[in-house]
Amino acid sequence: MGSRQRTQFRKPQPKKPGEVKSAAEIVRELKEGNASTSNYREQSLKIHGLICAKCGREFDSGSRHLLTVHHKDSNHRNNPADGSNWENLCIYCHDDEHSRGLLADYLRK
User: Fold this and answer.
1) Measuring CA to CA, which of 67, 74, 84, 93 is 20 to 30 A from 19?
2) Average pLDDT, the chain
């Protein structure tokens, strides 16, 4: 006879008195949060153009999906309207940028 494993669920944690929010407040916060983070890519593309800041590759409307926005300070919530925390990087350069720290940490050990 095989034994069946039970799926265990966590019990919901009681909320602190100050943490109760109405549905309208939650929806408003989500809308405000999504509005500020969803359009920073388009803003960055308009400000900095369809060019990778690292390798200089140029993109057109058909290949712009390969261009990403890198946050210079690594804080995805820091999205100033002037684009000073962003740089447009192609997917290859963006991947390289984020793997550099991992490689450095590995080589230090």
Assistant:
1) 74
2) 80
